[in-house]
Specification:
mainly alpha; single chain; 6 helices; 208 residues
Length: 208
């Protein structure tokens, strides 16, 4: 902040102040005692604090993305994920995204409704505890499928779910740093992953 002493203002006694700017000589004459400038005022919204918070947030985001990538590669080692070696055509991916968007939107509403009804609070707790694992799995599948699309566009000969996931996670990580884009990408990727997962669980045809 900045301290200003108006033309009609007067301060009797000494003045010790914190401000972004020092008082002018004319303002100092309106103080009867000694004027001492200590340092810039630091508050909750100090610029350096904001910058530090942003820096910490970026490093935390990078650490989280690396942890997700490592856990994703480990999960892809399981034989159950071998179906992700297949490349999905764009039309099929759009279909999976649309079907997968339904449970993505219903899930939080069902959790909230379970809390409101009180009697279904145990169900709400179960849904809340399952949220992180479900989100992780759907993101992993979605990124792998998108990576397969990109590999197809680049005409890469390799058909490896590990390569697809690597491409998808790098692209997602870079784009998610753009403001407001990260949330939209999360919904898109999770919807694709959820649609593919439901198709696999219910033994629907998966286009190779």
């Amino acid at each position: 902040g900045r301290l200003v002493i108006a033309d009609t203002g007067r301060i009797n006694g000494n003045l010790v102040y914190h401000s972004d700017h020092k008082l002018t000589d004319e303002e100092k004459k309106r103080v009867s005692g000694e004027v001492k400038f200590v340092q810039k005022e630091r508050g909750y919204f100090d610029d350096s604090d904001v910058d530090k918070f942003i820096d910490d947030s970026i490093w935390f985001s990078i650490f989280f993305k690396l942890a997700f990538a490592v856990m994703g590669f480990l999960l892809l080692l399981f034989p159950a994920t071998q179906f992700l070696n297949q490349r999905f055509k764009q039309q099929k991916v759009v279909s999976h995204a649309l079907w997968g968007l339904i449970p993505i939107l219903v899930y939080p509403s069902a959790t909230l409704l379970s809390v409101i009804l009180v009697i279904t609070i145990p169900l709400a707790i179960s849904l809340a505890l399952a949220f992180i694992p479900v989100l992780f799995i759907t993101k992993l599948i979605g990124m792998t499928v998108i990576g397969g699309l990109i590999a197809e566009a680049l005409k890469l000969n390799s058909k490896s779910r590990f390569l697809y996931f690597l491409i998808g996670v790098i692209l997602f990580s870079l784009l998610s740093f753009i403001p407001y884009i990260g949330f939209v990408l999360l919904i898109l990727v999770s919807s694709i992953g959820c649609g593919v997962l439901m198709s696999s669980l219910f033994q629907k045809s998966i286009l190779k």
